[in-house]
Amino acid sequence: MSASPPDAGTLPGLEQALELGLTEDEYGLVCDKLGRAPNQVELAMFSLLWSEHCSYKHSRKLLRTLPTEGEHVVMGPGENAGAVDVGDGLAVAFKVESHNHPSAVEPFQGAATGVGGILRDIFAIGARPIAVLDSLRFGEPSSPRSRYLLERAVAGIGHYGNSVGVATVGGEVYHEGPYEQNCLVNAMALGLASQERMIRSAAAGVGNVVVLFGSSTGRDGIGGASVLASAELGIDEDKRPTVQVGDPFAGKKALECSLELLERGLLVSLQDLGAAGLTSSSAEMASKGEVGLDLDVAKVPLREADMEPFEIMVSESQERMLCVCEPAKVDEVLAVCAKWEVHGTAIGVVTDTGRLRVLRDGDVVGDVPVVALVDDCPLYDLEPAPPAEPLYAAPEATLAPEADARATLLALLASPNIASRLPLFQQYDWIVQSRTVRRPGDADAAVLRLPGGNAIAVAIDGSGRRVAADPYHGTIENVLECAANLACVGAEPLGLTNCLNFGNPEKPHIAWQLTESIRGLGDACRALGVPVVGGNVSLYNEGAEGPIYPTPVVGLVGGLPDAARAGALAFAREGDAVGIVGPFAPALPASELAKLRGEALPDGLAAPDVSAVRAVHEAVRDAVRAGTLSSAHDVAEGGVAVALAECALAGGLGARVSLPGGDAWTRLFGEAPGTGFVVSGPRAALEALGAELVGEVGGEALQIEAGEASLSATLQELREAHRALAASFP
Amino acid sequence: MRARVLVRPKAGILDPQGIAVERALPALGFEGVQNVHVGRLIELDVEDPGQLDDMCRKLLVNPLIEDYEVVDAG
Amino acid sequence: MRFGVVRFPGTCDDVDALEACARVGDAEILWHGDRDLKGVDAVVVPGGFSYGDYLRVGAIARFSPVMESVVGFARGGGPVLGICNGFQVLCEAGLLPGALLPNVGLRFICRQVGVVVERTDTAWTSACDPGQILSIPVKHTTGRYFVPDAGALEDAGQVVLRYQSHGNPNGSSNDIAGVCNEGRNVVGLMPHPEHAVDVLLGSADGLRLFESAARVGVPA
């Protein structure tokens, strides 16, 4: 260990460390680990790797409680993405990630680079990206800013996904007041890989060569990770220079180059450069491989002249990959890079020192132990305490109190959280690569066929408002709803990824939300037998107006044996029986109707009977696989009435339904996510499923007999209400 | 020579970008704006300015749908 | 019957095109940097974002070495199909009349459309019935077909495919979705027939275009 730092010059001190986001104690720990004060390069590296975004220091202990094992798991948490076995020697890799703070500053590029980043995580393990889904949350559309953010974020996702040739097949958009200052942009991607071609990121083999390829390195996003994602966001124009600009053409070339390198068996390991750029990628590679790395920044292809070594090490220029290969293979690696025009350059070597050394033209300008950077970041225990008073204001009422059931249904169908998302999905290429068996809007989950005739299904779900009412049960509901979506197409869940979007964890009530939510996530996954194969945490999503709703977003991938038997949600045949199945106990508190009525959040939600729900999911799945049902659709926002309307609109067929017993308004509009399904088909099939028969498909209207809350609306009226979003996207 | 090539949509062809900008300006308080067209700028250092027209016709511009103007940027 | 599918940096729908061609014959990739067309009987220039759509859609791809050979092949009567970005490249290369402009709505649009087959006397529509309606997806930002004298093109019978009335997604002149050259061996269209070759994915109508070329057989 050196007594004084390399390239000492003027040493940065505690003040600069604090500016970069480290605490005083953390700075002291860095000095301990090095045995001296860090220089500029070293301090920059620590400030990024020890930031919340890179180190997960406030959430890692809790995340360790999640179940990660399962018979289908091929790659669990800890690698660039998780992966599950889907038969025929193939694996599906998938992960969800957030890009919340950059999207609030520059929504087009923030969303685009969010997609770019998650795609790189997928092909970094050797999987060809085949699908993208996105989960977006903004303030109410009455706010011009939120309308702007939605429009630009959707444009950005389309720009990137469409240009690289990956189908965007699903997603969700929600509008709630608490997201006005802190929008959420979570991007999920899936990839297909042959299991024997998959690769890990551990650098290995002393003497092996480190090659950088992709776009050249500029000053994009310098300090972005630590500055933006680890601190509460004020609306500060100064943050704009730290937003990265994505180039999907460069992303596509890097993707094809990576896959060709792997196809030819040329690589020992591969890693993408994301938050904290070269620093985090090289440190992670060295840490996993328990080796050291020497990197010469003078060899890095630069976009701007006169970049300092620390800038080169922390730059977040997009579309760059790092790989390790044997010396004998370097020429071939560089030749493949040249073919794809991606500036392949050897920039370093793998060593046995256990240290990450940064050199400039042979002179050491930074020298830190890898373990200190990656493993020794202090992990914090949260100090959770339930909030003493309500954290969130009641939403503004938008529905007149005297509105009858028919007007209520039309208002729900037109409401921002329920209206048809077709105007958004039509901005995405949902067909490229020719795998999409169920398109957005056809069914509750996207279905993508695989070469063997089987298929995978994927859905993404999160509720913020309900989790705010009850972080533990609300999170369980998110998992159940996502699994229900898969059951509707006939898929069995194979693995789960999650993106936990929360406020400032140093505040006890947020720590409580996070702790309870992760507890619910773990319990739900254990009860359903679904492993968590990876995910992401985004904290500090709050501003002067308060925190966002706690928003655990869940992505599930499932398998179905026969793509041709994938389920759909549209009513299909006049005369089909309509039924409701599941231990479905709807309630109005925390529902979409409660929101329209301006009601405050309840304190707590009813506990679902998860094992009973699991049994129903399996029964619905089996019925769909057997081809005995015409349609299956889970009951979500807006309750049974909205679900029936959605089935009717999708199929262009009305229905006559009767819902006797209990409180009429609750039966029509009450919610219990993930626990109830509306199914249609031959009477006998519904009876075999144990469905409660409630009516019949037919006619040009939806007629629901429900005592005082009976309603009737023509398909045309339902359609006009449901098309509410089209006005904003002419 | 530092040349500036200004490329604009040919007159008579519908320019929806220009229309969108023209419609957006009054909403921000700018009145009296008409005839907005959105094009492209290409800047380059050239040794032989005589080649510029050729460059434009061969690559930089599609003469079927675009007009162009070369400016000496000094 | 051997099809060659061109691949530029940034091409996205090459594998889809390859698989569509493989349903009616043999198919292989033609790399942009390689002048050798490998003796294929027909060439497909597929969709995507060649060269990131830099400068103008198709403007850079049309100068690639493979395109020199494709131009020669087309002038010699060989069947060439340009799909979406491929259509843009063929227009830039002068193999087809007209040009593609940004959609009137200024947004990327991806949806299923119905196109009417106006002419069955081209290399790529001979297996269709006159007036047949094909259900095929479109997905593009720059699909508004423009030609200075649309009337002359119509009179010459070079309008091959037309969007159904009220179904034009981009504002193209006369609802034109696809055109051919005077020799009727080169066809360009904005819709994606390679994404309509399997009912499981929504429609198999697009297969007709590939079947047409396969019928034409090996040129003398």
Order of helices and strands of chain B: EHEHE
Number of strands of chain B: 3
What overall form of chain C do the CA principal axes indicate?
globular
Q: What is the arithmetic mean of pLDDT of chain C? A: 96
Domains counted in the coordinates of chain B: how many? 1
Helix content of chain C: 10-25%
Distance between the termini of chain B: 6 Å
The major pleated sheet of chain C works out as: 9 strands, mixed
Residue share in β-strands of chain B:
25-35%
**Number of DSSP-assigned strands of chain C:** 11
Number of domains of chain C: 1
Would you identify the CATH H-level superfamily of chain B?
Answer: Phosphoribosylformylglycinamidine synthase subunit PurS
- Mean pLDDT across residues of chain B: 93
Spans where pLDDT lies below 50 across 5 or more residues of chain C: none
User: Helix-strand pattern of chain C, N to C?
Assistant: EHEEHEHEEEEHEEEH
- The fold-level CATH name of chain C is Rossmann fold
CATH H-level superfamily of chain C: Class I glutamine amidotransferase (GATase) domain
Describe the structure.
- The complex is a heterotrimer of chains A (730), B (74) and C (220).
- With 730 residues, chain A is α+β, with helices and mostly antiparallel strands.
- Chain A has a domain at 68-374: Alpha-Beta Complex (Phosphoribosyl-aminoimidazole Synthetase, Chain A, domain 2), CATH 3.90.650.10.
- Chain A contains 25 helices and 28 strands.
- A 7-stranded mixed β-sheet of chain A has the order 8-10-7-11-9-12-13.
- In chain A, strand 1 and strand 2 (82-87) form a beta hairpin.
- The N and C termini of chain A lie far apart (64 Å).
- Mean pLDDT of chain A is 94; it is low at 235-240.
- Chain B is elongated.
- In chain B, strands 2-1-3 form a 3-stranded antiparallel β-sheet, with helices on one face.
- In chain C, strand 10 (176-180) and strand 11 form a beta hairpin.
- Chain C has one domain (2-216): Rossmann fold (3-Layer(aba) Sandwich), CATH 3.40.50.
